[in-house]
């Protein structure tokens, strides 16, 4: 039984195509993340809010379409938006009391405060809270609303770790209770930390990313490794006499060379591997497997199918749940990188932990 | 759609707590009271002076509070959250109007006490005051729907304070400029006119014409509310 049904939805804006027709269903207990550019995300949100008409295709939540019955539609969906307003002068407790009455909710105030971890702040004015804590007030609002479908727009953008933890816990609880959750984000790491079902939406359409699913990757990996082993042998023969240690990247027409220790991490995006150095992104000419083999002697680690990280730069390993981990780097941006379950064991071994 | 008293009360309570902490708005509510206390010490002789304060209360409390309550929801982006909630527009505006209404009546009663205003026929005067309050809340709603921020609201309200608080003085010049005769049909002038008649011993039936005019104003302003609301909702 699917809660959200999107059927052949497409959107053109003036001369350009924002996204071609795509279909997506979110069922009960399901968490789906859509990774997209800011523009696509903003338009999706507007479609969900009814600010832009659904001209081509269908969009319905539990069978209610926005055009036909606005009230019934909005009763089924709870939205967390980036520009959600808040009553600055009221305390957290006042907010929750108001939401409880507004949505005639059964959830007790203490439960909501505990789930959003705002208990110590209950009597504090919202204007004195940090931006992350304000988001948690909005999470509280959704708890009281308790709709069938939850839509989150960039829920953990620029938030502290505690808020991220609260959010992940919340999403897990919601999906356990049979709710549908849709996360719209421009950050692949944040999408991967929430769910295994990540789609990418852009002007070429909706692509489902084959993420983690540990059993499959272990099957697929040996083959890849086998292939690349030959390559390394060939490469090593060429490389060794020159002691070539630089990693080339392509910026426009120039080739820029980097020392491996400079690199923070490498991310693969639709078959293209991008090297991140001090917050800047440089497209690499090599595939992930090639890079992994070249960089392995320098302390690099393939922590996820689409990520290679420089272990020297890792500052923290954050455990969200038993099966989901994130590496936090020590660079200025404190970038976080997903770490898959199978790789965690490998990493523990490398670190000498058992 | 069923009108839910519970949700209306939720919005009322939320706005009440919010406005207590909003010194910008709550201080302007206190102004008529300060003025009333001053006038009361100086001694008020004519009915017109009492009503100068009452009319100011209508503008500053009923219209301005209502206007800024709506404008602030828009400014802080919280109106959308309310619109997406099960609360209907009627319940949202109802909760806010209730707060402005109770505030206005409270301030008027206290100012009447401070200026020692004793109407001859309390029933007629109360009906007139309640009707006027309803009119000014309608005015505040229209202005609130049109403005986008509290700052804008407090500027927009100024000409209305001018017209409705001191506008009744224009009738003094009506002999010289016949066009100012129109000012006699303003709701504030009608209220003063009515109060003067009551003070000379008129009953409910003697002032029906003033009531009719005030009622006409109420009807007109709520028609405008509906028109402005529909137009704004299209955006």
Automatic annotation (TrEMBL), chain B:
InterPro entries: ABC2_TM. Its main location: membrane. It holds the Pfam family ABC2_membrane_3. Keywords: Membrane, Transmembrane, Transmembrane helix. It is found in: Membrane. It is a multi-pass membrane protein. Residues 50-226 form the ABC-2 type transporter transmembrane domain. GO terms for cellular component: membrane. GO terms for molecular function: ABC-type transporter activity. It comes from the Bacteria. The chain crosses the membrane at residues 20-39, 51-71, 92-115, 121-143, 155-174, 207-229. Coiled coil: none annotated. PANTHER family: ABC TRANSPORTER PERMEASE, ABC TRANSPORTER PERMEASE PROTEIN NOSY-RELATED. This is ABC transporter permease. It comes from Cytobacillus praedii. The lineage of its organism: Bacteria, Bacillati, Bacillota, Bacilli, Bacillales.
């Amino acid at each position: 039984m699917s809660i959200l049904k999107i059927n052949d939805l497409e959107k053109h804006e003036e001369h350009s195509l924002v996204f071609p027709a795509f279909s997506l269903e979110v069922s009960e207990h399901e968490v789906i993340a859509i990774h997209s550019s800011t523009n696509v995300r903003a338009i999706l949100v507007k479609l969900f809010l009814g600010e832009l008409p659904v001209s081509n295709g269908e969009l319905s939540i539990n069978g209610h379409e926005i055009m036909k019955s606005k009230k019934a539609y909005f009763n089924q969906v709870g939205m967390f938006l980036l520009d959600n307003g808040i009553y600055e002068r009221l305390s957290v407790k006042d907010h929750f009391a108001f939401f409880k009455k507004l949505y005639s909710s059964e959830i007790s105030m203490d439960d909501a405060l505990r789930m959003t971890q705002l208990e110590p702040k209950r009597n504090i004015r919202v204007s004195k809270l940090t931006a992350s804590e304000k988001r948690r007030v909005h999470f509280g609002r959704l708890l009281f609303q308790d709709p069938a479908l939850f839509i989150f727009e960039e829920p953990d953008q620029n938030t502290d770790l505690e808020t991220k933890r609260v959010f992940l816990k919340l999403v897990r609880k919601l999906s356990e209770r049979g709710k549908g959750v849709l996360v719209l984000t421009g950050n692949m790491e944040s999408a991967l930390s929430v769910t295994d079902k990540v789609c990418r939406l852009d002007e070429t359409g909706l692509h489902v990313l084959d993420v983690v699913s540990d059993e499959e990757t272990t099957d697929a990996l040996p083959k890849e490794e086998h292939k690349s082993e030959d390559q390394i042998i060939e490469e090593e023969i060429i490389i060794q006499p020159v002691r070539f240690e630089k990693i080339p990247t392509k910026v426009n027409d120039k080739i820029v060379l980097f020392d491996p220790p400079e690199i923070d991490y490498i991310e693969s995006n639709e078959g293209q591997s991008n090297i991140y150095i001090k917050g800047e992104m440089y497209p690499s000419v090599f595939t992930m497997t090639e890079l992994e083999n070249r960089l392995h002697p320098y302390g690099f680690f393939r922590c996820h199918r689409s990520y290679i990280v420089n272990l020297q730069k890792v500052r923290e390993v954050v455990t969200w749940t038993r099966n989901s981990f994130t590496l936090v780097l020590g660079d200025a941006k404190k970038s976080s990188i997903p770490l898959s379950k199978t790789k965690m064991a490998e990493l523990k071994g490398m670190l000498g932990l058992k | 759609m069923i009108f839910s008293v519970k949700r209306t009360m939720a919005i009322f309570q939320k706005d009440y707590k919010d406005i207590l902490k909003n010194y910008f708005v709550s201080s302007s509510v206190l102004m008529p009271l300060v003025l009333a206390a001053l006038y009361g010490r100086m001694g008020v002789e004519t009915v017109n002076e009492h009503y100068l304060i009452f009319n100011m209360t209508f503008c500053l409390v009923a219209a301005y509070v209502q206007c800024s309550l709506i404008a602030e929801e828009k400014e802080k982006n919280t109106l959308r959250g309310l619109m997406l909630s099960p609360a209907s527009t009627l319940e949202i505006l109802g909760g806010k109007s209730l707060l402005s209404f109770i505030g206005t009546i409270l301030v008027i009663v206290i100012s009447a006490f401070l200026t020692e205003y004793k109407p001859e026929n309390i029933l007629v005067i109360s009906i007139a005051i309640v009707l006027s309050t309803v009119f000014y809340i309608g005015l505040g709603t229209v202005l609130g729907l049109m403005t986008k921020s509290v700052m804008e609201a407090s500027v927009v309200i100024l000409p209305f304070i001018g017209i409705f608080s001191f506008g009744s003085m224009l009738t003094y010049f009506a002999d010289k400029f016949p066009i100012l005769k129109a000012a006699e049909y303003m709701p504030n002038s009608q209220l003063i006119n009515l109060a003067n008649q009551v003070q000379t011993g008129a009953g409910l039936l003697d002032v029906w014409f003033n009531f009719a005019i005030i009622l006409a104003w109420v009807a007109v302003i709520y028609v405008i509310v509906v028109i402005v609301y529909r137009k704004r909702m299209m955006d």
